Amino acid sequence: MQQEPQREARPLDARQICLRLGAIGAVVLVSGTAFAFVGGWLDPQRLTPDRVVDALEANSGRHEGYRRNHAKGVCVAGHFESNGAAQALSTAAVFAPGNTPVVGRLAVPGGNPYASDSSAPIRSFALRFTSANGEQWRTGMNSMPVFVVATPQAFYEQQLAAHPDPKTGKPDPQRMQAFFAAHPETAAFRAWAKTAKPSASYATESYHGLNAFYFIDAQGKRQPVRWHLAPLDATPAPAALPQHDADYLQADLQQRLAQGPLRWRLLVTLGAPGDSTSDATQQWPADRPTVDAGTVVITRSASQDEGPCRDVNYDPTVLPRGIAISDDPILAARSAAYAASYERRTSEGPPPAAPAPSHPTRQEHAQ
Known about the structure:
The protein has one domain (14-349): Catalase core domain (Catalase HpII,  Chain A, domain 1). The longest helix has 19 residues, at 329-347. α2 crosses α7 (329-347). β3 and β4 form a beta hairpin. It is globular and about 60 Å long. The protein is α+β, with helices and mostly antiparallel strands and 367 residues long. It contains eight helices and ten strands. Strands 1, 2, 3, 4, 5, 6, 7, 8, 9 and 10 form a ten-stranded antiparallel sheet that branches.
């Protein structure tokens, strides 16, 4: 069937941009929810993991048995082929030459497991590496290059600002404008979001770790790092078009895997003195050296309800020896909020069976 040409996007006006940013910002957090320092508390009277998860539920609705963010996703599995290049930077067994099994999850942001794949232009990729010595490395990555806010408190305030107006079902533009005006650190994310478009494939996305960590070598030297996955030999996919249904990402994934494994290079960027390790809204300069540590190879997928990722909490502070957290407060926040979400969904039992995939008409997509 001949594919109709993609129409040129018209510039968004200020109100549309604000609404879009509100919708994206309300669900953006594979990289972290909000709350806590190492002990798990900022101030028990002000902010707790449960209050953050409550705010996410208030914005997306309560869906028992599902993750409170990135509720819609698919399990994937395969292995990591280390080329040994990162072994000089970190003693983690995962970087020794050879293969390490991985269990992952590809997802779209938001707490609604029935949302359309085009509801936000962000895709996420979480991975659990399990080395032969039993140590694990868990990481959650997003297709955006920077995080929206720098602190757990700011993220919580963002959720409150993005709460849908009962009359419209969308965030109040004035309330979102006030939030962004009070948080100039959101500028880099907002600039990205204005031009970002939902892709038609998980396989063609680059996924960024966003937060900084430390690699520790055999001499105990600590090197600040950030990492991302870059697709390798992926057939290009257009932006989502009207003929795509609400669940096109999983269908595309299955079609691609039927033709062979999917691959991403694991690229580690080395920070220099002065590069922020505590603020995920700040990108490091583009000239920082990058180490190609190997290739993530995905060979199969499975339903998130029954697949190997179902009971995995992708807590990014679960790290092997040779990798350590930085001073970024969002990291401890993610750990605490992920634990609260995990406890809720596992105590609720398995999620109900998902409805059959919908296939909207082109007219419905245009509305």
